[in-house]
């Protein structure tokens, strides 16, 4: 006894509604009586041949035209036309008083025109067959024969018991009907008859029979059971349900070509099995605590010993979907263009490499075709059972034969490397640098190294720091050091230039030599460098300083994704299968031999082959690709490890559950905001049970609470504005949708308001406008979809194209142009979508598809197909859509969409901003600790493009659902894009890092030249940025300055304009964001400057402080320091740039004037010695020598060394006193003995002067 709540499922699987042509057949445009259409000779070919090809031109019309051509009088002409077979030309139209030949030719011309126009009928039918095949994955065109009728209570049938698959082909513009397929049973009719108490069993030995042979055999077999018509192959009789009253099976003549869906028995039988075993509720089991699902993902996704093997690029949400799917039942929610198919391909790849099995199914042929294409060479491991009842032998067996050849000729072993979501070095990096800027010492440490890397090449992070810290605590020049003059500059800075008799003098000489060697090409301020590092050391501490150095040395992390080579994966799986087959038992080996032989000779029809060799297929095929209608009776409950149902929002619940039943883990991919399931051949039964209310398998799974992961990045739309409406009204602004970097189209959505009329189920004005738009754009885009919001409008457009526009017709055949309606467009995409709404203000919209339940889903699909541009042609206005209290949500949303279309470009841009500003990153940065760094980078970039009008700097550059931190545009197009990663990953460090990395990859996929700037890699990047702007582009080509969409949106939000930069205080404004050290440094420079330039500055004369390490107030004297004759003291204009300050100081009049010639030098030096009361004139020289000799007599002083030192000093004082003669740059180091003697001499000199 079937539980009542499941009965509706079984009823819908039976699907025997009066609208189903396989249950009740009527002759119309889609169902043609071949007996009355074809010439008798052609009709006999169909009946008496297994394979045939006959012309579809009207046979009666051909006969009439041929008879007319052989007619020679009006009497015969009347006789030819006055027959039942001539509905084309009435005898009453003949002018019997006119010229016979003229009248005859006029009639022939008219009939030939009808014949020529009839070709259009077959083109339209063929197009419809193709669309249904794409939509349902089943071949729909068949010849039905041996019609059976029966009434069972309130249900009736009148349909063919048998079918023969047929195909329409065109040769030289003439349509032909061909077939080389089997004869098949109408499973729906047979099921109905058996459920009505008629136990009819037919074996399949008639599959290869000709139609006539089958009928002859049935007459023999059923002689005492059923009465068949005397003339089975006769004219079809059109009947209505009320005409059917027989309660016993009655057969009727007829041979009808039409669109039939004769299958459905497997799904119902499987569902009955599930219900009878009481297993319906256990197909999808769900945890109450959803944290269980989240934890499974978190436990796996960042483990480095668990890798993903992706053959196509993926983002973080896709990786999470794959990890979840491998571990638990999962709904992969894939909004339009978010990479659902590539996620499924990567999921299949991982299932393959980990040695599992999977059944993949979809109702959409296009979806499975995409999966097959993207799997590439891995499709060898997939057996495609796509309606194998209809598939041709060659296309079925060829890939199997290729697979067997690979297995049997395997000789190559490959090693494969897994790629975890986060690599080991990334994990270490994130854990090491997380929240680094929050430390109290980070800024000082980084500023020190920024300065070092900016002014010195070939930095050794550890060695350079050690050297800087080894420098003594003396004064260092603020200006840039000149090669070969380092010692001179430092001596000058310490007021020791003319005091070589001091120990400190020679210490500085030694240090200077080391500085010159290590910092030969250093172009910064040594004073600032030493100060920065000393400050960093003081605030950081030894252990933190070393820790920070290690981070700098290991800061480079590759953000790009590694893709696994599918060829390597293929070889690994082949090796695995090769080893499995080698271990076959003798019985399995025999089975394999028969299996492979059957493949090569193709002796069985595909469906028979699958049934016979199902066990071998299970052993060597890990992946089965099927449709919900595929007969999978050879597989049992949970025999597959995984089941993946793509486009599950379009699979009826009763069709999808039997697939899920076969697997342990279930994955449903789809989007509940897109199309619901559609029934091309009938209507559905409903009731108040869950199974009567819920249509799609996806809705059923979501209602149970199956864990969902949304794919959050749209890759399809080149313009974010194409997704503005869908993002806001269907996805709560949760999608990442951004403009391509090179997206120039300034009207991605173009609207044409026409004065059309909805009449006779079509809008002629809109159709003509759509054709005009197509003709103008057909050569401008690779692929175009012509979309009608109504199926009848779509038919009208198809008719128009086939009858009047051969160029567009050719585009349809080459798949460059697709004609779709709002009910069948899902799964398609195109560069350009041309949409015709068709309705006008008088249309009863409550009955329109877009206004019915599920209409909003169709609207969402329709408006999200375009990659580059959507052109909407409409008659109806938003104000003309009347909303009533009982109006559906679908109609209200349709009205909102019309309002959206009626916005002007500027209004649409503003809405675009408002919609995507709602999309926020939940992770907020600690602004107080990161602002200084961001401002530092932005000011450097601004300075780099100063006075280069081609470039502009934008801050928070909006490109759709998120902003880029800094963008430099070139000629009004994005050029260089900066993403800040300030290392603030927080408690969810790995996930936040992955999200930031994801943003980088997404921008790269959208063709942005993006650079991730961190406080660590800025040490190197700061020296590269100037190279980006070396050449200033000048062009007169206006196309080079055509702005992108994003430029126009952001132009009003420029961070720093060129005008602002030219203002006098511009640099001060930028510099205010510098570090605290900068401010302190400026103050110290000013103090030093004032100290050195005071006009009354005097030297301290007390030489007992000369050798004091403090080096303050070296000498005091009442003598003013002389200046150059033409020199005047300068006043420094202190700014915020330390380099500028250094330059200013270097231009000031020095304290001791640089030597111009020997006489000037001598005068200056005499003045110096006079300042310390030493007269070095010739008269006083003797006194000095005498005093020195007196000192030399002191036994405590080494006479030789001191004598030499005095001689050197005396020679230097009385000479030109050049650095070369002093030899401060000597390569030979100063030994300790010599320095000791200098120290002794200093003491002696103090004694002399003290006297």
Automatic annotation (TrEMBL):
GO molecular function annotation: 5'-3' DNA helicase activity; ATP binding; hydrolase activity
Keyword NADP appears in the UniProt entry: no
Segments passing through the bilayer: none
Organism domain of life: Bacteria
Annotated keywords: ATP-binding, Helicase, Hydrolase, Nucleotide-binding
Listed CDD domains: SF1_C_Upf1 (cd18808)
Record's keyword annotation contains Isomerase: no
Chain ranges of the DNA2/NAM7 helicase helicase domain: 314-377
One Pfam family linked to the record: AAA_11
Segments forming domain DNA2/NAM7 helicase-like C-terminal: 695-873
Classification via PANTHER family: DNA-BINDING PROTEIN SMUBP-2, DNA2/NAM7 HELICASE FAMILY MEMBER
Assigned protein family: Belongs to the DNA2/NAM7 helicase family.
Name the record gives this protein: Superfamily I DNA and/or RNA helicase
Organism: Mycoplasmopsis mustelae
């Amino acid at each position: 006894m079937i539980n009542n709540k499941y009965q509706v499922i079984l009823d819908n699987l039976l699907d025997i509604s009066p609208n189903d042509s396989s249950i009740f057949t009527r002759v119309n445009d889609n169902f043609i009586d071949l007996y009355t259409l074809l010439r008798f000779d052609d009709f006999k070919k169909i009946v008496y041949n297994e394979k045939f090809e006959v012309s579809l031109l009207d046979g009666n019309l051909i006969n009439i035209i041929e008879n007319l051509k052989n007619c020679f009088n009006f009497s015969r002409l009347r006789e030819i036309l006055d027959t039942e077979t001539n509905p084309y030309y009435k005898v009453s139209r003949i002018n019997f008083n006119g010229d016979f030949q003229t009248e005859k030719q006029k009639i022939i011309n008219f009939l030939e025109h009808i014949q020529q126009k009839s070709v259009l009928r077959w083109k339209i039918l063929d197009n419809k067959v193709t669309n249904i095949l794409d939509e349902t994955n089943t071949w729909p065109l068949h010849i039905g024969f041996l019609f059976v009728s029966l009434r069972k209570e309130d249900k009736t049938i009148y349909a063919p018991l048998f079918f023969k698959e047929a195909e329409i082909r065109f040769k030289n513009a003439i349509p032909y009907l061909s077939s080389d397929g089997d004869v098949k049973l109408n499973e729906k009719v047979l099921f109905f008859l058996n459920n009505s108490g008629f136990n009819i069993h037919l074996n399949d030995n008639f599959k290869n029979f000709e139609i006539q042979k089958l009928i002859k055999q049935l007459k023999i077999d059923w002689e005492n059971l059923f009465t068949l018509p005397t003339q089975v192959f006769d004219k079809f009789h059109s009947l209505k349900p009320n005409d059917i009253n027989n309660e016993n099976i009655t057969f009727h003549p007829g041979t009808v070509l039409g669109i039939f869906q004769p299958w459905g028995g497997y799904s119902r039988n499987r569902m009955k099995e599930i219900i009878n075993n009481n297993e319906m509720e256990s197909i999808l089991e769900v945890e109450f605590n959803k944290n269980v699902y989240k934890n499974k993902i978190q436990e796996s996704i960042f483990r480095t010993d668990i890798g993903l093997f992706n053959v196509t690029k993926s983002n973080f949400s896709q990786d999470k979907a794959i990890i979840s799917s491998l571990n638990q039942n999962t709904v992969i929610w894939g909004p339009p263009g978010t990479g659902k198919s590539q996620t499924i391909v990567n999921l299949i790849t991982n299932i393959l490499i980990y040695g599992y099995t999977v059944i993949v199914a979809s109702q959409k042929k296009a979806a499975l075709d995409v999966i097959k294409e993207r799997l590439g060479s891995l499709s060898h491991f997939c057996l495609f059972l796509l309606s194998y009842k209809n598939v041709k032998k060659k296309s079925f067996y060829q890939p199997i034969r290729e697979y067997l050849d690979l297995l049997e000729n395997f000789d190559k072993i490959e090693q494969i490397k897994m790629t975890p979501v986060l690599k080991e070095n990334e994990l270490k990096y994130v854990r090491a640098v997380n929240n680094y800027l929050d430390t109290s010492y980070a800024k000082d440490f980084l500023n020190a190294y920024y300065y070092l890397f900016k002014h010195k090449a070939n930095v050794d992070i550890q060695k350079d720091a050690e050297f800087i810290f080894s420098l003594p605590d003396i004064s260092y020049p603020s200006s840039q050091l000149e090669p070969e003059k380092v010692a001179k500059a430092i001596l000058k800075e310490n007021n020791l230039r003319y005091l070589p008799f001091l120990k400190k003098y020679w210490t500085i000489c030694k240090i200077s030599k080391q500085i010159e060697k290590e910092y030969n090409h250093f172009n910064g301020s040594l004073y600032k460098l030493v100060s920065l590092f000393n400050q960093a050391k003081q605030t950081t501490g030894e252990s933190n300083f070393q820790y920070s150095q290690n981070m700098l040395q290991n800061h480079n992390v590759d953000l790009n994704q590694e893709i696994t080579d599918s060829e390597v994966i293929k070889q690994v799986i082949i090796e695995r299968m090769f080893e499995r087959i080698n271990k076959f038992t003798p019985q399995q080996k025999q089975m394999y031999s028969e299996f492979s032989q059957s493949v090569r000779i193709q002796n069985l029809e595909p469906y028979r082959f699958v049934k016979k060799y199902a066990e071998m297929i299970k052993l060597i095929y890990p992946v089965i690709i099927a449709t919900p209608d595929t007969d999978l009776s050879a597989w049992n409950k949970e025999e597959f490890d995984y089941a993946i149902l793509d486009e599950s929002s379009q699979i009826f619940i009763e069709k999808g559950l039997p697939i899920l039943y076969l697997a342990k883990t279930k994955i449903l991919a789809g989007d509940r905001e897109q199309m619901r399931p559609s029934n091309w051949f009938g209507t559905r039964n409903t009731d108040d049970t869950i199974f009567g209310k819920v249509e799609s398998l996806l809705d059923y799974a979501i209602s149970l609470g199956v864990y969902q992961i949304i794919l959050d990045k749209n890759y399809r739309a080149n313009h974010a504005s194409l997704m503005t409406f869908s993002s806001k009204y269907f996805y709560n602004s949760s999608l990442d949708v951004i403009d391509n970097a090179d997206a120039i189209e300034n009207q991605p959505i173009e609207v044409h308001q026409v004065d059309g009329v909805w009449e006779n189920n079509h809008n002629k004005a809109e159709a003509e406008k759509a054709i005009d738009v197509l003709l103008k754009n057909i050569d401008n885009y690779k692929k175009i979809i012509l979309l009608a919001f109504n199926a009848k409008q779509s038919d009208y457009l198809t008719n128009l194209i086939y009858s009047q526009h051969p160029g567009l017709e050719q585009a349809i055949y080459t798949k460059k142009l697709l004609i779709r309606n709002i009910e069948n467009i899902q799964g398609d995409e195109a560069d350009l979508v041309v949409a015709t709404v068709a309705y006008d203000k008088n249309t009863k919209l409550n009955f329109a598809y877009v206004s019915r339940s599920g209409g909003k889903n169709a609207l969402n699909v329709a408006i999200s197909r375009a990659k580059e541009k959507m052109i909407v042609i409409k008659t109806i206005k938003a104000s003309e859509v009347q909303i009533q209290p009982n109006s559906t949500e679908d109609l209200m949303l349709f009205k909102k969409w019309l309002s959206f279309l009626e916005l002007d470009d500027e209004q649409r841009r503003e809405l675009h901003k408002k919609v995507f500003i709602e999309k926020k990153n939940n992770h907020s940065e600690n602004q107080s600790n990161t602002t200084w760094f961001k401002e530092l980078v932005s000011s450097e970039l601004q300075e780099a493009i100063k006075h280069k009008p081609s470039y502009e700097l934008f801050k928070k550059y909006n490109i759709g659902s998120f902003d880029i931190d800094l963008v430099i545009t070139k000629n009004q197009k994005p050029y260089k894009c900066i993403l800040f990663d300030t290392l603030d990953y927080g408690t969810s460090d790995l996930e936040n890092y992955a999200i930031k990395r994801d943003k980088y990859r997404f921008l790269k996929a959208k063709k942005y030249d993006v650079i991730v700037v961190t406080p660590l890699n800025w040490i190197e990047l700061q020296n590269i940025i100037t190279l980006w702007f070396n050449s200033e582009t000048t062009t007169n080509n206006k196309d080079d300055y055509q702005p992108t969409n994003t430029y126009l949106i952001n132009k009003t939000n420029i961070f720093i304009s060129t005008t602002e930069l030219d203002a006098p205080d511009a640099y001060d404004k930028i510099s205010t964001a510098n570090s605290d050290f900068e401010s302190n440094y400026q103050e110290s420079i000013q103090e030093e400057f004032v100290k050195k330039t005071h006009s009354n500055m005097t030297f301290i004369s007390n030489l007992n402080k000369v050798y004091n390490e403090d080096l303050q107030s070296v000498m005091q004297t009442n003598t003013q320091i002389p200046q150059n004759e033409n020199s005047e003291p300068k006043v420094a204009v202190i700014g915020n740039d330390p380099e500028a300050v250094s330059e200013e100081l270097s231009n000031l009049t020095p304290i001791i004037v640089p030597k111009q010639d020997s006489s000037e030098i001598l005068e200056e030096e005499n003045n110096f010695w006079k300042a310390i009361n030493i007269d070095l004139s010739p008269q006083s020289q003797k006194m000095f020598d005498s005093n020195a000799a007196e000192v030399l007599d002191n036994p405590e002083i080494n006479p030789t060394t001191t004598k030499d030192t005095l001689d050197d000093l005396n020679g230097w004082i009385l000479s030109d006193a050049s650095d070369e003669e002093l030899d401060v740059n000597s390569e030979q180091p100063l030994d300790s003995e010599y320095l000791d003697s200098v120290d002794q001499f200093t003491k002696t000199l103090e004694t002399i002067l003290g006297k």
